[in-house]
Design goal:
The chain is mainly alpha-helical. The chain contains 14 helices and six strands. A hairpin with a 5-residue loop joins strand 5 and strand 6.
């Protein structure tokens, strides 16, 4: 009996030793001769089992079952964060698990310039490997998503505020979009807090942002924007067509960079040479200066402006003065301008 008990104890000891050794090797594997950096993406809502399979497929861990047991033992099975992680092969599973629960994902700083269109933003994020352009655009045009964000119009165009953001790879596009929309709301409310309850002439939010986007695209000089805004307000007040080239361009699919007279005559919802008043929605995403210009336009009698070919514009109160400015700044050596109203 004693001999049997001794054999049993010995067997138990050997078994425990082998089990401990095997698990120790799992927890602290020998370092690889050439460890490799892997970018591992953990999707939102992923469970522990599919996470372990992804890690195994990337060569980060060797045994998914033991990894799951380790996560359970540490009580962090539901605390793994989503996003993109840089993990080196050969790292101990404990180190991998600590990284995944730390939330230390790969971060990227991305700048959205003032006046970027929705399409340009999608392309910028795609180039930075932060989002698929098609998915970003589809989300930005989803009526249910717009309704959830309580925004007017048929897309997020105009409401994705131009700024520098820090996103991490793997971040859902709607998280990025909501952050940009929240930034728009923050800046817009700050502009209004300076005294403007609403834009002049009773413009609603969609119309205000639409006009700001046109002002944004018409000039790159912040100091001119209140003057540009005043021209458009004066035209709206008198029932004149806005005649803004950037709106026409926005309505042309796959614009090739050459705006023609035929383009100016072609009816589209955004051709402000043809339609009366504002187009149906923004043509770009305006910055703070453009929003302020629309909320606080200069008080002028200007109805026209023309590019002086140096980044600035000449403003006129009547067609005679404007025509002289066009001859001076635009028709030197030319016989047939595309746009008599303005050239940008």
């Amino acid at each position: 009996m004693k001999r049997f008990l001794s054999i049993f104890v010995f067997a138990l000891f050997v078994s425990g030793t082998l089990t401990f050794h095997a698990f120790y090797i799992f927890l602290y594997p020998p370092p690889l001769a050439e460890p490799e950096a892997k970018i591992v993406r953990i999707q939102p809502g992923m469970g522990l089992r599919p996470i372990a399979r992804v890690l195994e497929a990337e060569g980060v861990i060797r045994n998914p079952t033991k990894f799951m047991l380790l996560a359970w033992w540490k009580g962090v099975g539901k605390k793994i964060q989503w996003g993109d992680f840089e993990i080196h092969t050969g790292e101990p599973p404990l180190t991998v698990l600590d990284l995944l629960t730390s939330g230390k994902t790969l971060l990227k700083r991305v700048t959205i310039p003032e006046g970027f269109t929705l399409k340009q933003i999608a392309e910028r994020l795609a180039n930075e490997n932060l989002a698929a352009a098609e998915g970003f655009l589809a989300s930005a045009r989803d009526p249910a998503w717009l309704n959830e964000l309580d925004l007017p119009g048929n897309s997020l165009e105009g409401f994705l505020f131009p700024d520098t953001y820090i996103f991490h790879r793997g971040m859902p596009v709607r998280v990025m979009q909501k952050r940009m929309v929240n930034r728009f709301r923050e800046v817009y409310q700050r502009c209004r807090s300076n005294g403007a309850a609403d834009a002049p002439q009773g413009l609603n939010l969609n119309q205000t942002v639409t006009l700001a986007s046109i002002v944004e695209r018409e000039t790159g000089q912040a100091g001119e924007r209140p003057l540009i805004a005043s021209v458009f307000y004066n035209r709206l007040r008198q029932g004149m067509a806005l005649q803004s080239d950037p709106t026409v361009i926005y309505g042309i699919k796959d614009f090739n960079g050459d705006l023609t007279k035929k383009d100016l005559q072609r009816p589209t919802p955004y051709n402000t040479y043809v339609i009366a008043g504002l187009p149906p929605g923004p043509i770009a995403n305006p910055g703070e200066d453009a929003l302020r210009a629309v909320l606080y336009p200069a008080k002028t009698d200007y109805l026209y402006f023309v590019s002086k070919n140096d980044g600035s514009h000449y403003f006129s109160k009547n067609i005679q003065e404007h025509n002289r400015a066009v001859v001076r700044y635009q028709l030197s050596g030319k016989s047939d301008p595309v746009s008599q109203n303005r050239k940008n």
